[in-house]
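// run 5 | inverse folding | seed 20
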């Protein structure tokens, strides 16, 4: 397929994804769930094929082929210069189209991976006879369509929704599944855009990684002259001076060394970060739209007066008298109209000065939007990622993407500080006005750091803890939350949490009499 055909095929496919609206009603029945899952999984395979075809045809770096194409190389003939400039503009536009289309495909791929990761956590395939369970990611795409036969031979495995899944499938309708992330960003309200930017900044928290390569500026003596060169050396070559002398001889001098480090973010993909931020910002926007009237009523002294003021403001801004006025005169007439309406409603004086109580309510309203509403999506995504870290094993985070693709399996001490951004007011708002199920933890980053330390100690001990109960135990021990609440968060029993807590406390201690005797012999007791 030529480039024009590939571009047309990609655009048609992305627009077909955009035309199909994903709804949460699809998750309420098994048939709807299977239809949505197979649809998204089929889309992902097609998108990956399109991406591979685009990269093979140079869509990833489309401007390289035209970088030397300009009028400076043309003969000094006016007609030729004009034609070359016109052709160069055409090729630049085509290269821009290629780059933007590949960018949109990459965004769609990341969004589909997030959606599929949430669905695969949300449901399992379970045999009604032998109780064997399989994740949907472990099954071939065609088998999901036709039905999966249980290895025990009893019959087809059935879809079962998990009550203890750590996922948020509600964000799927808000993901840029067709790659239209710029459109979805433009649809966000002001406070949601601020939340989007904050989530992007938090998940781009980079650690100071290991040296990947080094760029050196050296001087080499050749034919009696010192020649300056710029070279790049792989990080495997630690002894730079020895390597340079082997390559250039003894007469070599190092003038400058610049190290290039491998910096790893919490989520190592900008398309995934963008899709997650849009998904959680869009979900939070729907939540806020449902509860904002209740919030304003509780936070403001007289919310009815604020609503009257906003109606008057809209009426004055859209007021158009039957007169031929200039733009400045029309604005002046509208201002006078607003002052008169506010004075008639008892919300201000004749000169447009608002009542003190109304001014204070408007300031509180802006603060609620700027601080409280903005923190809702930030809290939601940080809480979900923290629960995913707590409720999964290191092995699973390393081998499976889950609902958070490209998530680092382990964070360093500076990166876990990201999770200290939880807002108590936003947690209280979600728990009061929406079924948030969240608990405010003062130092959530320390809880995660302790989890990583325990996982490091468990390496090679052949322990097989219950991941959800294990995470609940760590949250109880380090987050100072009561054990019943922690068990409810992870949907496990209190007895399971107590068992895992006991295992954590006994970690590293001898468990048998022979082991205790051996340690006593070493100590000399």
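// decoded
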């Amino acid at each position: 397929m030529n480039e024009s055909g590939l571009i047309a095929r990609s655009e048609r496919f992305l627009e077909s994804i955009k035309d199909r609206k994903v709804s949460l009603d699809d998750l309420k029945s098994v048939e709807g769930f299977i239809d949505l899952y197979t649809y998204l999984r089929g889309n992902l395979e097609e998108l990956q094929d399109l991406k591979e075809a685009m990269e093979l045809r140079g869509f990833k770096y489309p401007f390289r082929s035209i970088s030397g194409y300009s009028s400076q190389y043309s003969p000094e003939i006016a007609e030729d210069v004009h034609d070359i400039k016109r052709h160069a503009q055409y090729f630049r536009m085509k290269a821009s189209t290629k780059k933007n289309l590949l960018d949109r495909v990459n965004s769609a791929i990341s969004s589909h991976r997030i959606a599929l990761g949430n669905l695969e956590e949300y449901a399992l395939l379970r045999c009604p006879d032998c109780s064997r369970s399989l994740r949907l990611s472990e099954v071939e795409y065609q088998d999901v369509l036709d039905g999966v036969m249980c290895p025990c031979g009893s019959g087809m495995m059935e879809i079962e929704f998990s009550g203890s899944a750590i996922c948020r499938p509600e964000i799927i309708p808000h993901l840029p599944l067709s790659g239209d992330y710029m459109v979805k960003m433009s649809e966000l309200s002001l406070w949601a855009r601020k939340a989007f930017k904050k989530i992007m900044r938090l998940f781009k928290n980079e650690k100071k990684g290991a040296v990947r390569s080094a760029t050196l500026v050296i001087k080499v003596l050749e034919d009696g002259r010192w020649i300056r060169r710029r070279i790049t050396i792989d990080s495997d070559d630690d002894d730079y001076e020895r390597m340079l002398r082997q390559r250039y001889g003894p007469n070599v001098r190092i003038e400058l060394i610049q190290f290039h480090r491998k910096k790893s973010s919490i989520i190592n993909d900008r398309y995934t970060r963008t899709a997650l931020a849009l998904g959680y910002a869009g979900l939070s926007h729907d939540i806020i739209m449902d509860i904002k009237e209740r919030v304003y009523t509780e936070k403001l002294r007289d919310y009815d007066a604020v609503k009257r003021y906003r109606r008057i403001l809209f009426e004055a801004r859209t007021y158009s008298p039957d007169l031929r006025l200039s733009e400045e005169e029309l604005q002046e007439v509208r201002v006078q109209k607003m002052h008169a309406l506010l004075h008639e409603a008892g919300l201000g004086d004749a000169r447009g000065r608002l009542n003190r109580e109304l001014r204070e309510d408007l300031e509180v309203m802006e603060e609620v939007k700027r601080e409280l509403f903005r923190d809702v999506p930030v809290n939601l995504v940080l809480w979900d990622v923290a629960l995913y870290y707590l409720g999964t094993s290191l092995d699973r985070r390393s081998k499976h993407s889950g609902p958070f693709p490209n998530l680092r399996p382990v964070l360093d001490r500076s990166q876990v500080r990201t999770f200290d951004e939880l807002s108590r007011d936003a947690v209280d708002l979600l728990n009061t006005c929406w079924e948030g199920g969240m608990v405010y933890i003062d130092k959530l980053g320390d809880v995660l750091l302790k989890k990583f330390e325990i996982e490091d100690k468990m390496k090679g001990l052949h322990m097989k803890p219950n991941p959800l109960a294990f995470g609940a135990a760590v949250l109880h021990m380090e987050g100072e939350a009561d054990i019943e609440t922690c068990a409810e968060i992870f949907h496990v029993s209190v007895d399971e949490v107590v068992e895992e807590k006991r295992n954590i406390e006994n970690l590293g201690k001898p468990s048998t009499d022979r082991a205790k005797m051996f340690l006593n012999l070493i100590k000399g007791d």
